[in-house]
Amino acid sequence: MRNINRLYQKALRKYPVSTQAVQAGILMGLGDQIAQNFIDDSKNIDFVRTMQFAGIGFFITGPATRTWYGILDKYIGSKGSSVAIKKVACDQLFFAPSFIAVLLVAIGICQEKDIAKLKVKIANEYRDILINNYKLWPMVQLLNFSIVPLNYQALVVQSVALLWNSYISYRTSLDKHNEFK
């Protein structure tokens, strides 16, 4: 276990964005599996959907969050309670609303929705997901930005996001389930 930790620390220092992209891919895929196995109560597991969520984590979520946290750290700072509050404000006012839209579009594309169906998907899901975002993430981010070093902030978020991703997976698959009823 100690060797795995050393290898992880080395990868995180040398390749922070790539390492956190892999983390996000694994955790988003796992979040989808939790949704399918325990929330959707699916009889047949959709492994393509799981791989799509993992791909979104690897190519979008991991790189975007790590890059965003680096930008916040560079322009706002890294220490102090006022810095943490400013970071949370920026994160929740700028990043979260736009990132949720990007996430919904990416999921919609994976679900093979055309432009008209993407617009409906966003209209149906965006508001509820954003409101639920504001119920969870400001407190998580306040703790994250206050006490967690930059290289571990994406890991903290991705760990909490395991449950969040389960919710997103479930919420964004509702229309798919309703198509068959």
Tag the structure with descriptive keywords.
6 helices, single chain, 88% helix
Short description, anyone?
The protein has helices at residues 2-14, 16-39, 47-76, 81-110, 115-147, 150-179. By secondary structure, the chain is mostly helical. This is Mitochondrial inner membrane protein Mpv17.
Summarize the structure in words.
By secondary structure, the chain is mainly α. The chain has one domain. Helices cover 88% and strands 0% of the residues. The protein has six helices and no strands. Helix 1 (2-14) crosses helix 2, helix 2 (16-39) runs parallel beside helix 6 and helix 3 packs antiparallel against helix 4.
Shape: globular
The total count of strands amounts to 0
How many domains is the backbone divided into?
Answer: 1
Main sheet properties = none
The overall pLDDT average reads 91
Number of helices: 6
Distance between the termini: 47 Å
> Strand fraction band?
under 5%
Helix content: over 70%
Helix-strand makeup class:
mainly alpha
Transmembrane segments: 53-72, 92-110
Subcellular location: Membrane
Family: Belongs to the peroxisomal membrane protein PXMP2/4 family.
Organism: Pogonomyrmex barbatus (red harvester ant)
